[in-house]
Design a protein that fits this description.
Blueprint: E1 23-28, H1 32-35, H2 45-55, E2 64-69
Parallel strand pairs: 1-2
Length: about 80
């Protein structure tokens, strides 16, 4: 599989630079694991968590959630 990235160079969905007013954003930083090496973008835990948050009625306060994946393979937080 080839590596897919959005227009911002992230391995993530394509988001607008400025979020709409009904969107709350979170940032994910990490290494190959959170980057999602060797799996499809829609199958990363970041994408699955974002989908789950947006589908969960307990999280629905008229808001949507976006998790921006800033992870980089072969990097370490240590």
């Amino acid at each position: 599989d080839r590596l897919v990235s959005n227009r911002w160079g992230q391995r993530d969905k394509d988001y607008e630079k400025s979020p709409p007013t009904d969107v709350r954003r979170m940032a994910l930083a990490g290494s190959s694991i959170s980057f999602g090496s060797c799996i499809a973008v829609q199958d990363t835990f970041e994408a699955l968590l974002e989908d789950r948050l947006n589908a969960d009625p307990l999280c629905d306060r008229g808001l949507r959630y976006e998790i921006l994946n800033f992870s980089v393979p072969r990097y370490s937080s240590c």
